[in-house]
Amino acid sequence: MADKPGERRPRLWAKRALVALAIAGFLILAGFLGAAFIPRWWAHAIGGQVNGSIAAGIMVGLFYGFVFTGLPLLVLWWTFGRRRPLKHWLIGLVIAVLIALPNLFTLGIILGSGGAAHAGERTLDVDAPGFRGGALAGAIIAVVAVVLLAYLLTSGRHRSRRLDALEQRLKAQERAERARIEALPEPAPAEPQKQA
Question: Rounded distance, CA 86 to CA 63, Å?
Fold first, then answer.
């Protein structure tokens, strides 16, 4: 027996609510597991790259801070710079967050209050000295670079629009002057002078 149209709506909302609860539960579980696992894993991964060298720690930190701050900002700027459907905005936001994950992992270690964050902090102190300071400096440089790039591009576009408007006004003035000259009456021919 087919459902009546009025009966379908509560079932549809019940399914949506169940899916939303399942997604929320999965995200909460993933958050707890991530908080217990990711800080340690990330600190050991960075420690393996740096291998206890302060210079390497600063360089790797600068790289991670610059690249994984600059790229997400560019993605966000491209995504939200124009009117797009909400779906495109959400996809752009997810892509930016995924690209920024290395910096978010480092931030989780620095700001985290759990045991895994403290263990990650100790690992970074021993195996990757200078990484956190380098990552912060790289992130600041990336923000400044993206803001400067945005300023240069928008001011260049603004300047180009102003030049186009001035060219149009100049052409309009030239056309008006040409029309005014053509509208002037032609001078009468001069009478020949009589010779005495």
Answer: 32
Residues (pLDDT < 70) of the chain are 1-8, 187-196
Quote the pTM value.
0.68
Alpha-carbon span 135 to 161, nearest angstrom: 39
Cα dihedral 178→179→181→187 (10° resolution)? 140
Which residues lie closer than 8 Å to 30 by C-beta, 6 or more apart?
none
Q: How far apart are CA 30 and CA 27, in angstroms?
A: 5
The CA distance from 22 to 30, in Å, is 12
Give the span between the Cα atoms of 181 and 105, in whole angstroms: 73
Q: What per-residue confidence (pLDDT) applies to 74?
A: 94
Full DSSP string of 95-144: HHHHHTHHHHHHHHHHH--SHHHHHHHHHHHHHSTTHHHHHHHHHHHHHH
Tokens matching residue 42: 């990330």
